[in-house]
Design goal:
By secondary structure, chain A is an alpha/beta fold. Chain A contains 14 helices and 14 strands. The first copy, chain A, folds into 2 domains: 156 residues, HUPs (Rossmann fold, 3-Layer(aba) Sandwich), CATH 3.40.50; 138 residues, Argininosuccinate synthetase, chain A, domain 2 (Alpha-Beta Complex), CATH 3.90.1260.
């Protein structure tokens, strides 16, 4: 394998950092750079990225701008939601779940255009570099990976701006000064971290939030919605059938309005340090609880408890960037197997930052009023069975008690 | 072992059901019945229980009314909270955690008064019978257990009332008719189930709630509080040191006021069926999130993730009644080991049903601004290390990719 | 549902106990009894069972004798072996894995002949009653289950013999006296327990073993064999393709000859007590290690370790009788997913009770001499990557060490 | 923190490699090197290491040769054995468990002599570098770690020999040529890997084994021994009390004689590749099975199964070098809690490579002949309890069966 790079596919947002990277790659490697800009519903115009790429000499056929929104929700967000994954008990993994899709598409493009290298704009302290690169390597084991933030000498904002000025890269007015925090966004969430958020004792300032109203400013009346699920995935809101991405966007609208899905978290990064982030996952927070709601009546206890035991590991794998790994796929196989009858309707109340499951029904419900009722159950359950059940569950404890107590 | 019972210790609330049981035991077994009424902070007068027991002929020295509130919170609620236990992802185990303490005290009294049997008023369909009886058997392997609801023929409310009337047991006015649902309460929570709650599609009616205001009726302004933790346990609120029970009661007041801790759940009982319950855990819900908050900065990742993997099993053990089991104690040993430096302060915002951790600090914080900062970190972290880290994490995926992709 | 039984399908071995049960069922329920005798390779003649059933008045079309050997190995033993399941670290689950198949076939026959009840000859202290009945209930939720050993009054051997004599049931000469231990057998193993085995300090007497020679009597020279695997299942021995049952039988022959697969175990029964058993699993013990051997070169680490973490739970489920449960099926889905490339050849040395994997090869091997070699690896692995790998794995421990040490 | 190194503590075996490293460190860093040679029962003379260190100018007071045998077995091997740890189902972790002790002692010496750096002779492809360095960093977060194999240019054996010749480092006759494989040894085991072992299809040649006779050459008669355990640790053999190290040495003698504990394994390294090793763990293999034997009668099922579920993760942590981590310590706390009554005697048969537990007894036995017996149990167990036990365990499966089958 020679070290000479011929063509690089760059994950390109069109922002200042990846514009600088684009130029730096062209200069440093003296080769063609192909830009790839993904629409993951981050809510930004993508055409300016095309203009920028053109301006910096990227060939027309080497500018890729792809709408991945449906694929993102259908093949990444929904499978993850089937597992009820929460990292460290609370985090809905909004950034983590987008990285493997970007990596996958980047590798597809590399194969298409005959590139031998890929590059991204993630820094050397974060998790995203790991997620991108594990994806690259899993899907294209011999690809060359270039991570400029770990390699170049533009180690301060001042030097980055100087480089941009020197190479006539447009610098947005608000990027001249230091941004007060850094963000990542896609259809599932927006994350913010750094600077004003770095002291975990200080409350997140209001200006950091962009995807949700403050619960205090949310409507004074609760709103009720229903979500229909089929085989573990959302298919309709208030009875109206929707594609995965449309469904998530619709839930985002509800979540934004009612101030739902804000999370202030100090988490453990895969690279070894703790960081403090602020996440907004408006639609995802609603969806997560709704999915639990429909599982409550359609999932057997054995399946449900096994899922609960597997979920922390599953979440950790996604957080750490192991989406394309046999162990994540094995867990997915187990989870997906369990979802065959996770079909039905959940009713939710949304109010001032809160999501409350208030009803659930299903043609496949395992809940039996007849069995559970305090009333006469017509023999559906023989209470005397409980005596034997308890006696045999107690047997080992009694033998132990005789020895130890 | 002869079958003749000499003396029975009954878990006695003083309500209609356990009063009927008291009489029925006296009649059926022709022996002395000792009553034990526990104050677990359920918020009811306990002296009426004494009067009732007297009225039914229980000897003065055989009437036990014990205040177990501090022991309950210190030795049961707090250890459980150290584990971040949630049953089926959501339930704070308020009923489950009280049963082992009642069982333990009942067995202690049985030993004190020389009783050879214990009895309780839990029905044959629920989990509580299991929790009581596993506790009894673990602590006193040869004790005789009498579960009237599984044995007698008072299988309808009408017959129960008839029995009460016939034996001049006072019947509270509101118990003549059918109660619209059934409840259990202690300092940690109130649970409600049955009757009006039996259709899981129907929203819980407002009159079911007793421990919290409706979030819609909660104050329009958020309130901030701090909780101080030492070695994993809460010790102060807003800087004021408190005993465990006082601390939980104080949080209950905050939770009640702000409508916090309501949960509508369809859960899987240990005895095999699904049931729908409504839980109010006002203080516990606040405490649970606060504990996670302080762990975020004081717990190492390895410890935190191991705890997350063990928590579902730990919660299941408590739910199923295995508090007094070697496996619960082993998990507790692991959890407690992790809490040695879980010391510090969490700041929380309470608002309309929501609890938000907004700040945490600790003399033992593992969060390092110096390491995590986007700014110059003065060599605390070498970004180039990440390259090797990723390469070796990727190695097996690359070997796999070469084979499979 | 009425209590009147119309027709019962009995799991019928043709031995004394199930013959007595057959008669007892006819008498007690006054209904037709259908006999089902499974050939699971237990190595007994089955035609005598037919004769006995006839003799006791079972209609010709109600006598079922089915050869289930291939189904047993293909659909039960092999899937379990894919999971490397060992109960309590050592036991290959030979009895446990046969029960669900018998239950399944019994239910199929019940549906065929319009029976409303099923019955078996397992006692009330063992695991087998649970395994049979959980299978029955899972596959036919409303079937009536009759477990004579828990119901009748033939509670001693003497009374059983009396009953047999009275009803002219042939009593094998060796059954008049007490058998010195009790056994179960199928193609995978023979288990022995009870009587002479009940003191776990006493060595198992030689006459208990029936499936293997004593290692001391095994050949003095080792023997080498190969097993070929495809997608996780054995397909050939010494290069000769075989059906699943033939393959297992062939391994049984090797195992018998070399004294392989004896296990003396004190285990924990699902019904709560400890029991001591002696197991002979000649072919299974060879197969188990061979399967691990082929996985060593074809399974990725992530998959392998996840399998190892799941295996104890999987084994427990089978031991406890939960073969037909969603959680076992979910785990199977995960395990099976991992086996797609578990293809190749394992070479084994068999000698005096020992099985040694001495070689393995595969077209899908993930083992790379090029990467692992101590010699020059031509850049396949950059040793400097290890520095970063270690540094970032150490980071959290260093932060912790600064705080705690 | 300056980069200037003042004093280095080297883990020094006295062999060629670490002698070259000693010289290289002196030259490269121009500072004092302190040598530390651990006696872990590897069976080599250690005084030659002293002579060599002297020869190379190490000050007398800077030559440390410590007998760590008792500490090794008592504080590392035994705790690990309590957990029944097996890496990838088979490997007794003989190399892995020695590394943390060496690292710990090295750090202690560094503190004693005021050294600011530590160094070891492990290569950049293996696990040992990770185990050493994670230990160093955990115990001394700011220590400087020097790993010559990852840093220097002596990348071939020829260059290493040249360097040794040039610096008059004595070269053992047998080290001039290429060694046919590489080994590591301590009291628990000897491992061999590389060269002649690199093709996993080729059987390990006989000359590789050094700690055990070939089973074929072992005595033709079996030998029986007993091991006494107290609280989970071995304390006596054949009734003779022994210190931990003496006990393990004695078992090693038995194991060697009977050809016990050979393992040919392809395993997954933490650094990402598969490697093939041959392990001899004669005493450890006996001890491991004996410990399982005594647990069989003294450990409750709940404790035993929890241990089995935790063991793979525990083993992985040790293998990967995380001995000094909170999660390993948490698991140890759980394991140790379970061992309080793991006291009693195990009887074993040793024969031609095989270890067979043939008897176990304990004053704390939970095995109850009275309960388990096929004979009349005088009411110790009521078989009718099993009916209720099964019915309630089946309930969820029946509800599921009604829905799905």
């Amino acid at each position: 394998m020679s070290d000479k790079i011929n063509r690089i596919v760059l994950a390109f947002s069109g922002g200042l950092d990846t514009s600088v990277i684009l130029k730096w790659l062209q200069q440093t490697y003296g080769c063609e750079v192909v830009t790839f800009t993904a629409d993951l519903g981050q809510g930004e115009e993508l055409e300016p990225a095309r203009a920028k790429a053109r301006l910096m000499g990227v060939k027309e056929e080497h500018i890729f701008i792809d709408d991945l929104r449906e694929e993102f929700v259908k093949d990444y967000v929904f499978p993850m939601m089937r597992a009820n994954a929460l990292y460290e008990g609370l985090y809905l993994l909004g950034t983590s779940i987008a990285r493997p899709l970007i990596a996958k598409r980047q590798i597809e493009i590399a194969k298409m255009v005959g590139a031998d290298a890929v590059s991204h704009g993630a820094t050397g302290k974060g998790n995203d570099q790991v997620r991108f690169e594990l994806g690259y390597y899993a899907l294209s084991p011999d690809v060359k990976v270039i991570a400029p933030w770990r390699e170049w000498d533009l180690t301060s904002r001042t030097r980055l701006i100087e480089f941009a000025e020197k190479h006539q890269i447009p610098i947005p007015r608000d990027k001249r000064g230091e941004s007060p925090f850094s963000t990542d966004a896609n259809m599932l969430h927006t994350s913010s971290e750094g600077k004003v958020l770095e002291d975990p004792w200080e409350e997140t300032p209001d200006f950091v939030y962009s995807r949700t109203v403050n619960p205090e400013d949310a409507p004074d009346a609760p709103e009720y919605i229903t979500i229909d699920f089929e085989q573990g995935d959302g298919v309709a809101i208030n009875g109206v059938g929707m594609s995965p991405a449309t469904l998530l966007e619709t839930l985002n609208d509800y979540g934004r309005k009612h101030g739902i899905g804000r999370l202030d978290l100090v988490e453990n990064r895969f690279v070894g340090m703790k960081s403090r982030g602020m996440y907004e996952t408006p639609g995802g927070a609603i969806y997560h609880l709704a999915h639990r709601g429909i599982e409550q009546i359609t999932l057997d206890r054995g399946a449900a408890h096994l899922k609960d035991e597997l979920a922390p590991k599953y979440a950790e794998l996604i957080y750490n960037g192991f989406w394309f790994s046999p162990e994540r796929e094995m867990l997915q196989a187990a989870v997906d197997y369990s979802q065959q009858k996770v079909t039905g309707t959940v009713r939710l109340k949304l109010y001032k930052g809160g999501v409350y499951v208030v009803g659930r029904k299903s043609p496949y419900s395992l809940y039996s009023e007849k069995v559970v009722t305090f009333e006469d159950d017509a023999g559906a359950y023989d209470q005397r069975d409980a005596a034997g059940f308890i006696k045999l569950n107690a047997l080992r404890l009694r033998l132990l008690g005789r020895r130890d107590r």
